[in-house]
Amino acid sequence: MMQSMYSHSHLFGGNAPFIEELYEQYLADPNAVPGEWREYFDKLAMTPGAAERDVAHQPIQESFIQLAKKPVAGQRSSDVANWESMQKQVGVLKLISAWRVLGSRQANLDPLKRMDQATLRELDPAQHGLTDADMAVQFNTGSLVGPQKLPLSDILSRLKQTYGGNVGVEYMHITTSAEKHWVQQRFEGELSTPRYNADKKQRILKQITAAETLERYLHTRYVGQKRFSLEGGESAIAALDHLIQNGTAQGVEELIIGMAHRGRLNVLVNTLGKLPRDLFAEFEGKAAQELASGDVKYHMGFSSDIPTPHGPMHVSLAFNPSHLEIVNPVVEGSVRARQERRKDFEGKSVVPLLIHGDSAFGGLGVNQGTFNLSQTRGYRTGGTIHLVINNQVGFTTSDTRDMRSTIYCTDVAKMIEAPIFHVNGDDPEAVCFVMQAALDYRMTFKKDVVIDLVCYRKLGHNEGDDPFLTQPMMYKRIAKHAGVRAMYAQRLVAEGVLKAEASDDLIRAYRDALDKGEHVEQTVLSNYRREHALDWSQYHGTHWAHPTDTSLQQADVLRLAEKFTAVPADFKLHPTVKKVMEARMAMARGEQALDWGMAETLAYASLVTNGYGVRISGEDSGRGTFSHRHAVVHDQNRERWDQGAYVPLRHMSDNQGDFLVIDSILNEEAVLAYEYGYACSAPDKLVIWEAQFGDFANGAQVAIDQFISSGETKWGRLCGLTTILPHGYDGQGPEHSSARLERWLQLCAEHNMQIVMPSEAAQMFHMLRRQVLRPFRKPLVIFLSKRLLRYKDSMSPIDAITHGSFRPVIGDASIQDPKKVKRVLLCAGQVYYDLVNGRKERGLEEDVAIIRIEQLYPFPTEQLQAELAQFAHVKELLWVQEEPRNQGAWYQIRHRLEGLLQAKQTLDFAGRPSSASPAVGYMSKHVAQLKAFVEEAFAINK
């Protein structure tokens, strides 16, 4: 370092002692010298040959002087001297530990150097009883990687270079020794310093040149248009390239990326190889409009196959909305499905990469949920690489006193003990270095790892925003910043790796290619056929009423029931579960009507036996919230916490499909989004998310609105996810009654979803089988009655399984003479049985017909019209629902019902009065409301 300084002759010569004194002060505390000198010394630290963090020379010189004054070897040391020596050694080890824990807070991470860096006493040798006189003394280095003994000055130098340079490492929060030692060995062994050859350095420069040039090209060609520029964080493109080119060496064949809009266009073009001309067409509004709605260009997904030295890498960028971070669990679900399709149970071949913004990473709760899923049995994907593009500002907020309550935006990752690698975005080599470390850690331990790429945002939140309004100081510094490409090019020229004119040549070549709408060179494989690619063509263009045989012969019912009611010989069932199993055998023999638990289990058993996978997840899904499923049974004599659970549906046949039922973490948003992602990549499986109560699904409203309901019309993404929402007014209060049917129906259009409210057990059986057997992949939303699970009248005879099918509309089979009917009631769900009982109590069996609309969307117009035809003479039709008037299906289907009325027919409503709350909390009021609207439904003149 000092040699580099002396090479600047205009500053030194006679002034050398003064400059050296300033430099000594700078090394001790950068804030102790004037700003212009601090800036100069900072720049010197980035020059070739100055990779290591320098230490002050004066204390070392003083240390040698003191050593010379000590007695020569051979003289007996006093006990006091031995004690002092031991204390010094302990102090050295404490100093090493302090740097491991806190070194990142002294690292050179911020390219803008916007905030003063506090001096930490724990990192001061004096805090540990060490003085300048000890600098030349040899100490045992303990577990510090390197020589067993070093002078204190060398130890300090290694610590500063490893933990206080352009890389800051946080890992001491990890409690697993093997993982902690791995990180120590990696960074201390290499002193956090990359050592790349000339070819690699030139490739890095090419990547960041492409990143910067694309942004500047778009900025001038499409003035004022939103693109959410990556400028300031261009090193991220070099990091992605490094990950792709090196991942295949460790067996990675697919990289699934989830990211927000910042830098997305850059990733699409420079990483995934999207043709610039296609991007330009989107800017100019000339792109082909193949989707019903479409989406903005910075939300679109893309996939390609990229050549690497170790074989092709399939890279897929997930579609995402503006709702930040919600794409993360979607990506994880997709990765899990892809891994299972490959029979990759280690998570080696498919890797998730999530790219975050700093404000969103620490601010949005879905990240906590996604982290919580990461090591659970039903959701783990073998670890995720997280890349935080930390531009130190969220829209207009950059004051850390407002942004978070933690030191770093990445602290949330410590909940799963993920190592965190902070890196200065102005050092693209260091960025690639930590990306390699992250890849290696993930592949070694199959756990999450985080990179915090500290950079800046050159422009406003979008290109039409003026950041000086709220960040004047920050943007003055940004205006003076040369940019990472220019700085790195200068560095390579100084190192002799690059000729001075070569940097400009790269820019010209890239701009010339952009003018043609092309890439500088071919970066993706064309016409490459992947072994594990999915064929979705069979699911396109199918009508929801596509005829599908979902029945099952009774011999098959009996055979399957014998399998899923059996347990190992020494397995003791709970008495209640034993009765359930015995009852299910009776149902299979036709001795009892099938209840809902049996119908559901039979559907799963028939599917897995025929090779279709079934995946069910949700809170308490193994047993079922209402103790009706019992897909997982527990040995009452088990003595170990991790043994004694048995899943009969995994033991149906030798070559059966997978069956997995998961008791999920207590989270709706991340889990539902995960299952959506899984279902999007597993069209051959029945994928179910079950809410504990349907009321709680609104905790996942973002997943419902942004993905489930609109993913097809925005992005063309088909998805067969099934959602089970317990729903029904049973007097349990506002939060245990309504799955918000009205909201789901409001989201329905373009045949995007199926909304079903079944009233018979057999409907559940046929509906679940139909969802897989029919070549039609749209989300299925089941509003499941809690009360009907054990309601005898809703149970089905075996004949409904062996000869039936799903019925979108169920007519009134009890009406013998339709001409006698004076009123027709239309309803859905469990309220049907309240109406049947009310009709019987009033002796109106011949006067009132009750028709059930089981499928509310797509609306079964033809089927309902056929049922109503026999009642053309009836003047009064009523829609009856148990939900309040302003909720439920009434306002969403009223126009459809009115469209089926004959001349002189009227349509009216019976139900609870409009309410701001989904349901009342008083049982007496609940009963009174039920009595009132049932009375209204039958208020006819005989």
Descriptive keywords:
942 residues; alpha/beta; 8-stranded mixed β-sheet; 7-stranded mixed β-sheet; 32 helices; 39% helix; elongated; disordered N terminus
Q: In short, what is this structure?
A:
The protein is α/β, with parallel strands linked by helices and 942 residues long. The protein contains 32 helices and 24 strands. β5 and β6 form a beta hairpin.
Describe the secondary structure blueprint for this structure.
Elements: H1 2-6, H2 16-28, H3 35-45, H4 57-69, H5 79-102, E1 138-140, E2 149-151, H6 152-163, E3 167-170, H7 177-190, H8 198-221, H9 235-247, E4 254-259, H10 264-271, H11 276-283, E5 302-306, E6 313-317, H12 327-341, E7 350-357, H13 358-363, H14 365-373, E8 385-390, H15 400-403, E9 420-424, H16 428-445, E10 449-454, H17 472-480, H18 484-495, H19 502-515, H20 554-564, H21 575-588, H22 596-609, E11 613-618, E12 633-634, E13 645-646, E14 659-663, H23 669-680, E15 685-690, H24 701-708, H25 711-715, E16 722-726, H26 741-746, E17 754-756, H27 761-773, E18 780-784, H28 799-802, E19 809-810, E20 823-827, H29 831-842, E21 848-853, E22 855-857, H30 861-868, E23 876-884, H31 890-898, E24 906-912, H32 923-937
Parallel strand pairs: 4-6, 4-7, 7-8, 8-10, 9-10, 11-14, 11-15, 15-16, 16-18, 17-18, 20-21, 20-23, 23-24
Antiparallel strand pairs: 1-2, 3-9, 5-6, 12-13, 17-22, 19-21
Helix pairs in contact: 5-6, 8-9, 8-18, 8-19, 9-16, 12-23, 20-21, 20-22, 22-27, 23-24
